[in-house]
Amino acid sequence: MIVLVAAGILMFMLKKLVGRSRVPTGSKTILITAADTFIGSQISTHLASLGFRVFAGVNDINSKTSLRLKSFGSPWLHVIPLDVTNADSLGNAIKAVKAHFHAGEKGLWAVIHLAGTGVKNSNNKIGGDDEQQLRTALEVTVIGMLRLVRSCLPLLSAAKGRFIILGADDGMSLGLRVWGSGSIGITHGVWTAARFAAEGLATGLRAQLRPNGVPVVSLHPDAFYAQRLNEFPKPLIVYEMRTESPVPGGNGSTAATIDQSIPEFLSSYAIHAVEESILSAKPSESYVLAPSASSRIKSMMIAFSPNCVSNAVTKKHKYAQAEYAYSV
Fold it and tell me: What architecture is domain 22-234+261-327?
């Protein structure tokens, strides 16, 4: 009996060690959708800094966020137009990726589907969860996901790569408590519905793609900041630098400089989870994009506080100020 228990423990430990073994980054290509969002821009630049060849798909190749990605200065980062709801755009993106393969490279190591909907503050008043918003959310998040995996499956199968999605938040009861306690609760419904639908599709794809050697992985954002992941970064900040004249009484000069740094929205814990999903030889089916410890504590405090307190904390996210931002 003791021998069987010891053997079981040994097998469990060996399985964990095999699962944690990492693959080399060299000559591996990754395609990312919605790279012009908070989460997309940070993941794209981080993976490029690790040595992956990253194709960052953006909705508008000439947008300020796209130009910010281009200015990152890495030879491993390529910014391309990509709309998962458009078949021609998907086809052109796949052609661009294949054109940059190195000699001997078989296919895509990973496809990360981040496109979807987010909520940002605005002065525009909209009607909430109407049918058109839900249709758009499902078109981008779910139907776009199906089109994407169909287009990329030959390349994923050739490289035994993985298909990674941004799924529902890690604790929906907590998420609905936090966001539902204030007036933003209704707008959270579209995001929740689309992400749960994506999770359902991922479950089916997981079984369907297993014979192809393509694992399907879900990244679960923390409930506290789940909706912000699909927001677009703020416009570039322009600073004025004034230089005094070396001549007494002379006129100084003023030069404008632009902050083109990539915003670090995800915590170090969340970035580590993304790394594990990419680098693990045998990735888990899901990883949690956990926030910093302070954000987690704040989330728990709001979740378990009386309604009057949580409403006061989340009042800046009033329903009348919610506007949907779609990243395709």
Answer: 3-Layer(aba) Sandwich (3.40)
Kindly report the backbone phi and psi dihedral angles of residue 6, in degrees, each rounded to the nearest multiple of 5, phi listed first.
Answer: -65, -40
Burial code (b: 16+ CB inside 10 Å, e: under 16) for 60-94 equals eeeebbbbbbbebebebbbbbbbbbbeeebbeebb
The DSSP symbol for 236 reads P
CA distance 80 to 96: 8
pTM of the model: 0.75
pLDDT surpasses 50 at 324: no
User: Tokens representing 142?
Assistant: 């779910």
Q: Which of 200, 217, 219, 235 is nearest to 271 (CA)?
A: 219
Q: Measured between alpha carbons, how far is 245 from 268 in angstroms, rounded to an integer?
A: 44
Q: What would the pLDDT profile of 262-284 be if each residue is shown by its tens digit?
A: 667 788 989 999 999 999 999 99
pLDDT, one tens digit per residue, over 13-44 is: 555 544 456 666 667 999 999 999 888 999 99
CA 37 from centroid of its chain's CA atoms:
8
Map out the domains of the chain as residue ranges. 22-234+261-327
Distance between CA atoms of residues 12 and 8, nearest Å: 6
How far is Cα 43 from Cα 80, in angstroms, rounded to an integer? 15
Which residue from 206, 128, 116, 215 is spatially nearest to 167, judged by alpha carbons? 116
Rg (CA), the chain: 22
